[in-house]
């Protein structure tokens, strides 16, 4: 009931200002988050009575472990909580019947389940999800970094392999900020904002939705509406996947890791200009991160950071093939709001 009330309030508020001006970032986040909650509640209502499923655990020391869970309610994270604290803290992604599965996505049938950690011998799928999550966190920081009078439009997140040395997030800033070039202090401010989200240890909550739902959630962004249509056309199920972190809702091309707290070492390294594009002056923000289980010595980190400053080149039709995290081998206009 509370979710419905919030959604109705913001729907009226946004409808009343749509013709006059763009809603503030905080208003958009609240509106999108309320619609996310409304759709999630609708999907949960599709399971009106408790139905049990059998989840066979796989992995070292878990062979033969069988968990009885609730269909449409229990998640891989729920399963981890029936094991040990180590599984809860270390699991970042899951394999359900061999397919990548977000830790907070409900299970819908009896299945086999393997919890993935950064110490596994084959890190490919998890590295890909981690790099994607780092980019999502960067986008969330940028969305909230500027004063409300400046619009920030997040573009689709390029899928890049870990081997390029940095994840990235493309965006368009308000025309008033076209001359802005980030200083080192600006980058440090963005990094501090990222660490605040990391410290909160927020879950990345997935939700698979019909395109119509996503179009309503992003009704104030023509750019995102185009991205919704593109992702739906590419999806075998004709759906799109959303992720919510706090109140921030974003589109995604694949699974994220379980929570922001896994991104222990994290730094925003650069913002490059890509020139004029469909939506205005396109920019590419970049960052670097290593998970809590794979920290780097500060001398190695400095070298990795230097590499992550170079602009990431994204081939238009490239397919990401991530590998393990790499080893050692100003004139400023209005700046990000100081928090």
TrEMBL record:
Its main location: mitochondrion. The keyword Hydrolase does not apply. One of its GO terms (molecular function) is nucleotide binding. Residues 312-339 are annotated as: Disordered. It is found in: Mitochondrion. Keywords: Mitochondrion, Ribonucleoprotein, Ribosomal protein. The keyword Hydrolase does not apply. Residues 317-333 have a biased composition (Polar residues). It comes from the Eukaryota. GO terms for cellular component: mitochondrion; ribonucleoprotein complex; ribosome. InterPro entries: Beta-grasp_dom_sf, Pro-tRNA_synthetase, Thr/Ala-tRNA-synth_IIc_edit. Belongs to the mitochondrion-specific ribosomal protein mL39 family. This is Large ribosomal subunit protein mL39.
């Amino acid at each position: 009931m509370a979710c419905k009330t919030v959604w109705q309030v913001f729907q009226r508020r946004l409808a009343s200002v749509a013709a006059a001006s763009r809603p503030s970032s905080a208003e958009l986040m609240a509106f999108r988050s309320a619609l996310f909650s409304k759709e999630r509640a609708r999907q949960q209502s599709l399971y009106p009575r408790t139905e049990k499923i059998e989840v066979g655990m796989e992995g070292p020391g878990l062979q033969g472990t069988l968990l009885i869970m609730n269909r449409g309610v229990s998640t891989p994270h729920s399963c981890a909580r029936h094991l040990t604290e180590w599984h809860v803290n270390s699991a970042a992604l899951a394999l359900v019947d061999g397919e990548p599965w977000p830790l907070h996505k409900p299970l819908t049938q009896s299945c086999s389940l393997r919890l993935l950690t950064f110490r596994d011998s084959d890190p490919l799928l998890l590295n890909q999800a981690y790099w994607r999550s780092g980019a999502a966190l960067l986008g969330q920081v940028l969305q909230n970094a500027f004063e409300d009078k400046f619009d920030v439009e997040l573009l689709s997140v390029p899928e890049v392999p870990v081997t390029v040395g940095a994840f990235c997030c493309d965006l368009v800033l308000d025309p008033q900020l076209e001359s802005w070039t980030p200083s080192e202090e600006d980058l440090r401010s963005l990094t501090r904002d990222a660490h605040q989200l990391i410290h909160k240890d927020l879950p990345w909550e997935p939700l698979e939705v019909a395109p119509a739902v996503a179009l309503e959630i992003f009704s104030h962004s023509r750019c995102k509406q185009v991205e919704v249509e593109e992702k739906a056309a590419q999806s075998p199920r004709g759906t799109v996947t959303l992720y919510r972190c706090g109140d921030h809702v974003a589109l995604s091309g694949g699974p994220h890791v379980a929570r922001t707290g896994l991104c222990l070492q994290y730094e925003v390294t650069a913002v490059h200009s890509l020139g004029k594009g469909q939506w205005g002056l396109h920019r590419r923000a970049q960052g670097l991160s290593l998970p809590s289980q794979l920290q780097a010595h500060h001398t190695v980190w400095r070298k990795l950071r230097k590499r992550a400053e170079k602009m990431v080149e994204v081939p238009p039709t490239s397919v990401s093939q991530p590998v393990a995290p790499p080893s050692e081998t100003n004139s400023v206009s209005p700046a990000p709001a100081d928090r």
